[in-house]
Amino acid sequence: RRFTDLKHYSDELQSVISHLLRVRARVADRLYGVYKVHGNYGRVFSEWSAIEKEMGDGLQSAGHHMDVYASSIDDILEDEEHYADQLKEYLFYAEALRCRAVCRKHELMQYDLEMAAQDLASKKQQCEELATGTVRTFSLKGMTTKLFGQETPEQREARIKVLEEQINEGEQQLKSKNLEGREFVKNAWADIERFKEQKNRDLKEALISYAVMQISMCKKGIQVWTNAKECFSKM
Length: 235
Description:
The chain has 235 residues and is an all-alpha fold. It is built from five helices and no strands.
């Protein structure tokens, strides 16, 4: 049950992070356009300053502020990619690979355990049928007996001995697989809990840093237009 819940959590978290990355990419594309438009402001103000005498210096200075602001987008997008990479690490490695791999291995171990238990039960039934001389279900052995006659007591004893050895070996293997499974669950869950704690710290740090960067960008935008306002005021 815990591993099923983990798999569902992994799928849901992967979906959430994928959507977050797509939204970030769309915002970054639009942000790039906004910054580059400020470059157009810079060009227009500079061209305008060339035909003005009294307003020329103010327009030229305002255009310079716009150009600087527009050119800063490349560094901003580089910083954004850094935060996106932190999210992608958990999208592709931590969740898609690590958690799913653990769940898949647990499923395979459970399947192997069930097959071993079924094989052991089948051998015990065969041994019981040989010992009692009764066949509870249809079997190839029962049909063969009807066609070719009963085994000799010696043949039956030999088969019983072989089955008993196989049953003993199967019980040991089943016990070993049970122990291995419990140990795997114990270690895997402890590892997953550590991973979740690390994931929470890393994603919290990435989201806070991203928010701080967005706040800084907004402040720079305000400062650019504040500077432009001062330039216009001095004309």
